TrEMBL record:
It comes from the Bacteria. Belongs to the IMPDH/GMPR family. Signal peptide: none annotated. Gene3D superfamilies: Aldolase class I. The keyword Cell division does not apply. Coiled coil: none annotated. InterPro entries: Aldolase_TIM (IPR013785), IMP_DH (IPR005990), IMP_DH-rel2 (IPR005992), IMP_DH_GMPRt (IPR001093). Pfam families: IMPDH. Keywords: NAD, Oxidoreductase. Residues 19-311 form the IMP dehydrogenase/GMP reductase domain. This is GuaB3 family IMP dehydrogenase-related protein.
Amino acid sequence: MRDLVDIGMGRTARRTFELDDISIVPSRRTRSSKDVSTAWQIDAYRFESPILSHPTDALVSPSAAVELGRLGALGVINGEGLWARHRDVDAKLEELAAVATDNADPLAAIRLLQQLHAAPLDPDLLGAAVATVRDAGVTTAVRVSPQHAPELTPALLQAGVEILVVHGTIISAEHVAQADPNDGPVREPLNLKTFIAELDIPVIAGGVHDHRTALHLMRTGAAGVIVGYGSAEGATTTGEVLGIGVPMATAIADAAAARREYLDETGGRYVHVIADGDIHTSGDLAKAIACGADAAVLGTPLAAAAEAPGRGWYWPSAAAHPDTPRGALLQVATDEDRPSLECVLNGPSQDPYGELNLVGALRRSMAKAGYSDLKEFQKVGLTVHV
Protein backbone atom coordinates (compact mmCIF):
# COMPACT_ATOMS: atom_id res chain seq x y z
CA MET A 1 0.00 0.00 0.00
CA ARG A 2 1.45 3.35 -0.99
CA ASP A 3 1.83 5.88 1.80
CA LEU A 4 -0.27 8.87 0.70
CA VAL A 5 -0.47 12.14 2.58
CA ASP A 6 -2.86 15.05 2.19
CA ILE A 7 -1.19 18.23 0.97
CA GLY A 8 -4.47 20.15 0.82
CA MET A 9 -8.19 19.65 0.33
CA GLY A 10 -8.67 17.03 -2.36
CA ARG A 11 -4.94 16.73 -3.18
CA THR A 12 -2.68 13.95 -2.04
CA ALA A 13 0.97 13.10 -2.62
CA ARG A 14 2.99 9.97 -2.14
CA ARG A 15 5.51 9.82 0.69
CA THR A 16 8.87 8.88 -0.76
CA PHE A 17 12.46 8.47 0.36
CA GLU A 18 15.87 9.71 -0.73
CA LEU A 19 19.08 7.73 -0.35
CA ASP A 20 19.95 9.98 2.61
CA ASP A 21 16.77 8.79 4.35
CA ILE A 22 17.84 5.15 4.59
CA SER A 23 20.63 3.08 6.11
CA ILE A 24 21.93 -0.43 5.49
CA VAL A 25 21.46 -2.92 8.33
CA PRO A 26 24.21 -5.56 8.74
CA SER A 27 23.09 -9.13 9.35
CA ARG A 28 24.42 -11.53 11.98
CA ARG A 29 26.98 -12.78 9.48
CA THR A 30 30.03 -10.89 8.19
CA ARG A 31 32.75 -11.94 5.78
CA SER A 32 36.12 -10.83 4.53
CA SER A 33 36.01 -8.13 1.87
CA LYS A 34 38.48 -10.27 -0.10
CA ASP A 35 35.65 -12.78 -0.60
CA VAL A 36 33.28 -10.20 -2.08
CA SER A 37 32.71 -9.62 -5.81
CA THR A 38 31.52 -6.28 -7.20
CA ALA A 39 31.43 -7.64 -10.76
CA TRP A 40 28.52 -6.68 -12.99
CA GLN A 41 27.57 -8.10 -16.36
CA ILE A 42 25.06 -6.74 -18.88
CA ASP A 43 24.45 -8.86 -21.95
CA ALA A 44 27.89 -10.22 -22.99
CA TYR A 45 29.85 -7.42 -21.32
CA ARG A 46 31.35 -7.93 -17.88
CA PHE A 47 32.79 -5.22 -15.64
CA GLU A 48 34.65 -5.52 -12.36
CA SER A 49 32.59 -2.72 -10.81
CA PRO A 50 28.94 -1.65 -11.24
CA ILE A 51 29.82 1.87 -12.38
CA LEU A 52 29.01 3.87 -15.50
CA SER A 53 30.06 7.45 -16.10
CA HIS A 54 27.53 10.19 -16.71
CA PRO A 55 27.73 10.95 -20.45
CA THR A 56 29.23 14.41 -20.26
CA ASP A 57 32.35 15.93 -21.79
CA ALA A 58 33.37 16.92 -18.26
CA LEU A 59 34.06 13.26 -17.50
CA VAL A 60 34.62 11.28 -20.65
CA SER A 61 37.06 11.83 -23.46
CA PRO A 62 38.15 8.85 -25.56
CA SER A 63 41.26 8.49 -23.37
CA ALA A 64 39.23 8.76 -20.14
CA ALA A 65 36.83 6.11 -21.46
CA VAL A 66 39.80 3.82 -22.06
CA GLU A 67 41.09 4.38 -18.52
CA LEU A 68 37.65 3.77 -17.01
CA GLY A 69 37.44 0.52 -18.94
CA ARG A 70 40.91 -0.50 -17.84
CA LEU A 71 39.85 0.04 -14.23
CA GLY A 72 36.72 -2.10 -14.57
CA ALA A 73 34.06 0.58 -15.10
CA LEU A 74 32.19 1.75 -18.23
CA GLY A 75 32.89 5.16 -19.71
CA VAL A 76 29.98 6.53 -21.75
CA ILE A 77 30.85 9.07 -24.44
CA ASN A 78 28.32 11.82 -25.10
CA GLY A 79 27.44 11.21 -28.74
CA GLU A 80 26.12 14.75 -29.03
CA GLY A 81 28.93 16.39 -27.12
CA LEU A 82 32.07 18.20 -28.14
CA TRP A 83 33.91 15.14 -29.46
CA ALA A 84 31.17 14.86 -32.07
CA ARG A 85 31.38 18.58 -33.00
CA HIS A 86 34.98 19.83 -32.78
CA ARG A 87 38.45 18.58 -33.68
CA ASP A 88 40.27 20.61 -31.01
CA VAL A 89 38.18 19.57 -28.00
CA ASP A 90 41.00 19.85 -25.46
CA ALA A 91 41.51 23.51 -26.37
CA LYS A 92 37.76 24.15 -26.13
CA LEU A 93 37.59 22.57 -22.67
CA GLU A 94 40.61 24.51 -21.49
CA GLU A 95 38.90 27.72 -22.60
CA LEU A 96 35.69 26.65 -20.84
CA ALA A 97 37.54 25.94 -17.57
CA ALA A 98 39.24 29.34 -17.77
CA VAL A 99 35.89 31.10 -18.24
CA ALA A 100 34.32 29.11 -15.40
CA THR A 101 37.21 30.00 -13.09
CA ASP A 102 36.55 33.70 -13.69
CA ASN A 103 33.55 34.29 -11.42
CA ALA A 104 32.90 37.82 -12.67
CA ASP A 105 29.99 36.47 -14.73
CA PRO A 106 28.77 33.07 -13.48
CA LEU A 107 26.64 32.57 -16.62
CA ALA A 108 29.50 33.12 -19.06
CA ALA A 109 30.52 29.47 -18.93
CA ILE A 110 27.01 28.30 -19.78
CA ARG A 111 26.86 30.70 -22.72
CA LEU A 112 30.19 29.38 -24.00
CA LEU A 113 29.02 25.78 -23.52
CA GLN A 114 25.89 26.56 -25.57
CA GLN A 115 28.01 28.16 -28.28
CA LEU A 116 30.30 25.15 -28.47
CA HIS A 117 27.31 22.83 -28.77
CA ALA A 118 25.81 24.97 -31.53
CA ALA A 119 28.39 23.55 -33.96
CA PRO A 120 26.88 20.82 -36.17
CA LEU A 121 27.21 17.17 -35.30
CA ASP A 122 29.86 15.38 -37.35
CA PRO A 123 29.34 11.58 -37.47
CA ASP A 124 32.91 11.12 -38.71
CA LEU A 125 34.35 12.83 -35.61
CA LEU A 126 32.10 10.75 -33.38
CA GLY A 127 33.10 7.59 -35.19
CA ALA A 128 36.78 8.42 -34.72
CA ALA A 129 36.25 8.87 -30.97
CA VAL A 130 34.50 5.50 -30.74
CA ALA A 131 37.21 3.82 -32.79
CA THR A 132 39.87 5.12 -30.38
CA VAL A 133 38.16 3.39 -27.47
CA ARG A 134 37.44 0.23 -29.44
CA ASP A 135 41.04 -0.07 -30.62
CA ALA A 136 42.22 0.12 -27.00
CA GLY A 137 40.34 -3.11 -26.29
CA VAL A 138 37.76 -1.82 -23.79
CA THR A 139 33.98 -1.80 -24.14
CA THR A 140 32.65 1.13 -26.15
CA ALA A 141 29.46 2.88 -25.03
CA VAL A 142 27.87 6.04 -26.44
CA ARG A 143 24.91 8.11 -25.32
CA VAL A 144 22.43 9.57 -27.81
CA SER A 145 19.22 11.45 -27.17
CA PRO A 146 15.87 10.08 -28.40
CA GLN A 147 15.74 12.97 -30.89
CA HIS A 148 19.07 12.13 -32.56
CA ALA A 149 19.23 8.35 -32.05
CA PRO A 150 18.04 7.39 -35.58
CA GLU A 151 20.50 9.64 -37.40
CA LEU A 152 23.58 8.94 -35.25
CA THR A 153 23.21 5.21 -34.64
CA PRO A 154 24.27 4.01 -38.14
CA ALA A 155 27.61 5.83 -37.86
CA LEU A 156 28.09 4.49 -34.34
CA LEU A 157 27.45 0.92 -35.44
CA GLN A 158 29.93 1.32 -38.27
CA ALA A 159 32.52 2.65 -35.82
CA GLY A 160 32.06 -0.40 -33.57
CA VAL A 161 29.96 0.82 -30.65
CA GLU A 162 29.07 -2.08 -28.35
CA ILE A 163 26.51 -0.57 -25.96
CA LEU A 164 24.08 2.19 -26.95
CA VAL A 165 22.65 4.46 -24.25
CA VAL A 166 19.45 6.29 -25.24
CA HIS A 167 19.34 8.89 -22.53
CA GLY A 168 17.32 12.00 -21.82
CA THR A 169 16.08 13.96 -18.82
CA ILE A 170 12.80 12.08 -19.11
CA ILE A 171 12.28 9.26 -21.56
CA SER A 172 9.29 7.18 -22.60
CA ALA A 173 8.72 4.19 -24.83
CA GLU A 174 7.77 6.53 -27.66
CA HIS A 175 9.22 10.02 -28.07
CA VAL A 176 6.43 12.16 -29.51
CA ALA A 177 7.34 15.34 -31.41
CA GLN A 178 5.03 17.93 -32.91
CA ALA A 179 5.98 19.43 -36.24
CA ASP A 180 7.76 22.78 -36.01
CA PRO A 181 8.30 24.61 -39.32
CA ASN A 182 11.19 26.56 -37.77
CA ASP A 183 13.06 23.46 -36.62
CA GLY A 184 14.17 21.94 -39.91
CA PRO A 185 12.87 18.63 -41.32
CA VAL A 186 10.13 16.94 -39.32
CA ARG A 187 11.42 13.81 -37.57
CA GLU A 188 9.26 10.77 -37.03
CA PRO A 189 8.65 9.96 -33.35
CA LEU A 190 11.15 7.45 -32.00
CA ASN A 191 9.46 4.17 -31.15
CA LEU A 192 12.00 2.51 -28.88
CA LYS A 193 10.55 -0.97 -29.26
CA THR A 194 10.96 -0.88 -33.04
CA PHE A 195 14.32 0.90 -32.80
CA ILE A 196 15.81 -1.60 -30.34
CA ALA A 197 14.46 -4.62 -32.23
CA GLU A 198 16.47 -3.60 -35.29
CA LEU A 199 19.78 -3.46 -33.40
CA ASP A 200 22.18 -6.30 -32.62
CA ILE A 201 23.73 -4.52 -29.62
CA PRO A 202 22.30 -4.00 -26.12
CA VAL A 203 20.52 -0.72 -25.45
CA ILE A 204 20.31 1.04 -22.09
CA ALA A 205 17.47 3.57 -21.89
CA GLY A 206 16.35 6.18 -19.38
CA GLY A 207 15.73 8.09 -17.24
CA VAL A 208 12.56 7.04 -15.54
CA HIS A 209 11.25 7.68 -12.07
CA ASP A 210 8.48 5.20 -11.30
CA HIS A 211 7.34 1.60 -11.62
CA ARG A 212 5.02 2.11 -14.59
CA THR A 213 7.50 3.96 -16.81
CA ALA A 214 10.28 1.52 -15.92
CA LEU A 215 8.07 -1.42 -16.88
CA HIS A 216 7.14 0.26 -20.18
CA LEU A 217 10.81 0.73 -21.05
CA MET A 218 11.60 -2.87 -20.14
CA ARG A 219 8.94 -3.98 -22.59
CA THR A 220 10.75 -2.18 -25.41
CA GLY A 221 13.55 -4.73 -25.22
CA ALA A 222 16.06 -2.52 -23.42
CA ALA A 223 18.83 -4.42 -21.67
CA GLY A 224 19.01 -1.81 -18.91
CA VAL A 225 16.80 0.99 -17.61
CA ILE A 226 18.26 4.14 -16.06
CA VAL A 227 16.38 5.36 -12.99
CA GLY A 228 16.68 9.04 -12.11
CA TYR A 229 17.61 12.24 -13.87
CA GLY A 230 21.25 12.52 -12.84
CA SER A 231 20.47 14.88 -9.98
CA ALA A 232 23.58 16.37 -8.47
CA GLU A 233 24.67 19.62 -6.91
CA GLY A 234 25.56 20.97 -10.35
CA ALA A 235 22.35 19.79 -12.03
CA THR A 236 19.32 22.03 -11.80
CA THR A 237 16.68 19.83 -13.43
CA THR A 238 15.12 19.25 -10.04
CA GLY A 239 13.14 22.10 -8.62
CA GLU A 240 14.76 25.17 -10.10
CA VAL A 241 14.01 24.67 -13.82
CA LEU A 242 11.39 21.96 -14.35
CA GLY A 243 10.06 21.44 -10.85
CA ILE A 244 10.83 17.74 -11.21
CA GLY A 245 12.42 15.65 -8.48
CA VAL A 246 13.25 11.98 -8.09
CA PRO A 247 13.34 10.40 -4.61
CA MET A 248 16.08 7.95 -5.53
CA ALA A 249 15.59 5.28 -2.84
CA THR A 250 11.91 4.95 -3.71
CA ALA A 251 12.47 5.19 -7.46
CA ILE A 252 15.12 2.44 -7.44
CA ALA A 253 12.91 0.16 -5.35
CA ASP A 254 9.97 0.79 -7.70
CA ALA A 255 12.07 -0.04 -10.76
CA ALA A 256 13.38 -3.18 -9.06
CA ALA A 257 9.76 -4.23 -8.51
CA ALA A 258 9.10 -3.63 -12.22
CA ARG A 259 12.14 -5.79 -13.00
CA ARG A 260 10.67 -8.68 -10.98
CA GLU A 261 7.29 -8.24 -12.65
CA TYR A 262 8.86 -8.20 -16.12
CA LEU A 263 10.99 -11.24 -15.25
CA ASP A 264 7.79 -13.19 -14.44
CA GLU A 265 5.97 -11.75 -17.45
CA THR A 266 8.65 -12.91 -19.90
CA GLY A 267 9.58 -16.16 -18.22
CA GLY A 268 13.10 -15.11 -17.29
CA ARG A 269 14.27 -11.99 -19.19
CA TYR A 270 16.29 -9.88 -16.76
CA VAL A 271 16.56 -6.11 -17.30
CA HIS A 272 19.19 -4.22 -15.33
CA VAL A 273 18.22 -1.28 -13.15
CA ILE A 274 20.82 1.50 -13.23
CA ALA A 275 20.63 4.29 -10.65
CA ASP A 276 21.44 7.82 -11.80
CA GLY A 277 21.23 10.58 -9.23
CA ASP A 278 22.35 11.73 -5.78
CA ILE A 279 25.29 9.30 -5.70
CA HIS A 280 28.26 11.31 -4.49
CA THR A 281 29.99 8.97 -2.01
CA SER A 282 30.70 5.28 -1.58
CA GLY A 283 27.89 5.13 0.99
CA ASP A 284 25.42 6.48 -1.59
CA LEU A 285 26.64 3.86 -4.07
CA ALA A 286 26.16 1.06 -1.53
CA LYS A 287 22.65 2.24 -0.64
CA ALA A 288 21.65 2.47 -4.31
CA ILE A 289 22.65 -1.18 -4.82
CA ALA A 290 20.91 -2.14 -1.58
CA CYS A 291 17.67 -0.57 -2.83
CA GLY A 292 17.77 -2.82 -5.88
CA ALA A 293 20.06 -1.22 -8.47
CA ASP A 294 22.39 -3.43 -10.49
CA ALA A 295 24.75 -0.56 -11.29
CA ALA A 296 25.03 3.20 -10.86
CA VAL A 297 25.87 6.24 -12.97
CA LEU A 298 28.47 8.51 -11.36
CA GLY A 299 29.04 12.18 -12.08
CA THR A 300 30.73 14.45 -9.55
CA PRO A 301 32.92 11.74 -7.96
CA LEU A 302 34.59 11.03 -11.32
CA ALA A 303 34.93 14.71 -12.20
CA ALA A 304 37.55 15.13 -9.50
CA ALA A 305 39.89 12.65 -11.20
CA ALA A 306 43.03 13.88 -12.93
CA GLU A 307 42.03 12.05 -16.13
CA ALA A 308 38.64 13.78 -16.36
CA PRO A 309 38.80 16.25 -19.27
CA GLY A 310 36.75 18.90 -17.42
CA ARG A 311 39.83 19.98 -15.43
CA GLY A 312 38.08 19.65 -12.09
CA TRP A 313 34.77 21.09 -13.30
CA TYR A 314 31.56 19.09 -13.61
CA TRP A 315 28.43 19.80 -15.61
CA PRO A 316 25.64 17.46 -16.72
CA SER A 317 25.00 16.91 -20.41
CA ALA A 318 21.74 18.90 -20.14
CA ALA A 319 23.70 22.03 -19.17
CA ALA A 320 24.35 22.76 -22.85
CA HIS A 321 20.69 22.82 -23.92
CA PRO A 322 20.29 25.75 -26.35
CA ASP A 323 17.29 27.40 -24.67
CA THR A 324 16.66 25.63 -21.34
CA PRO A 325 20.02 24.72 -19.75
CA ARG A 326 19.56 22.41 -16.78
CA GLY A 327 22.85 22.44 -14.99
CA ALA A 328 25.60 24.73 -13.84
CA LEU A 329 29.35 24.25 -13.89
CA LEU A 330 30.45 22.98 -10.50
CA GLN A 331 34.10 22.94 -9.43
CA VAL A 332 34.77 19.70 -7.58
CA ALA A 333 38.58 19.85 -7.53
CA THR A 334 41.49 22.11 -8.38
CA ASP A 335 44.55 21.15 -10.40
CA GLU A 336 46.56 20.84 -7.19
CA ASP A 337 44.35 18.21 -5.52
CA ARG A 338 43.00 16.00 -8.30
CA PRO A 339 43.47 12.31 -7.46
CA SER A 340 43.98 9.68 -10.12
CA LEU A 341 40.95 7.87 -11.49
CA GLU A 342 42.36 4.67 -10.05
CA CYS A 343 42.42 6.27 -6.61
CA VAL A 344 38.82 7.46 -7.00
CA LEU A 345 37.59 4.01 -7.93
CA ASN A 346 39.93 1.56 -6.26
CA GLY A 347 42.04 3.52 -3.78
CA PRO A 348 44.08 3.68 -1.74
CA SER A 349 42.41 6.54 0.07
CA GLN A 350 43.22 8.97 2.86
CA ASP A 351 39.74 10.52 2.56
CA PRO A 352 37.39 9.67 5.46
CA TYR A 353 34.23 10.98 3.73
CA GLY A 354 33.64 8.29 1.11
CA GLU A 355 34.74 10.29 -1.94
CA LEU A 356 37.67 8.01 -2.84
CA ASN A 357 38.06 4.23 -3.19
CA LEU A 358 34.38 3.95 -4.10
CA VAL A 359 34.55 0.32 -5.21
CA GLY A 360 36.69 -0.74 -2.26
CA ALA A 361 34.22 0.84 0.17
CA LEU A 362 31.28 -0.83 -1.61
CA ARG A 363 33.05 -4.16 -1.27
CA ARG A 364 33.61 -3.54 2.45
CA SER A 365 29.97 -2.52 2.97
CA MET A 366 28.85 -5.76 1.35
CA ALA A 367 31.27 -7.74 3.51
CA LYS A 368 30.10 -6.05 6.73
CA ALA A 369 26.51 -6.96 5.83
CA GLY A 370 27.49 -10.54 5.03
CA TYR A 371 26.91 -10.64 1.27
CA SER A 372 29.27 -11.93 -1.39
CA ASP A 373 27.90 -10.41 -4.62
CA LEU A 374 25.72 -7.59 -5.87
CA LYS A 375 22.57 -9.66 -6.42
CA GLU A 376 22.69 -10.94 -2.84
CA PHE A 377 23.34 -7.45 -1.51
CA GLN A 378 20.03 -6.27 -3.01
CA LYS A 379 18.36 -8.30 -0.25
CA VAL A 380 20.09 -6.52 2.65
CA GLY A 381 17.97 -5.03 5.40
CA LEU A 382 17.23 -1.30 5.38
CA THR A 383 16.02 1.22 7.92
CA VAL A 384 14.34 4.59 7.36
CA HIS A 385 15.22 7.69 9.35
CA VAL A 386 12.05 9.37 10.69
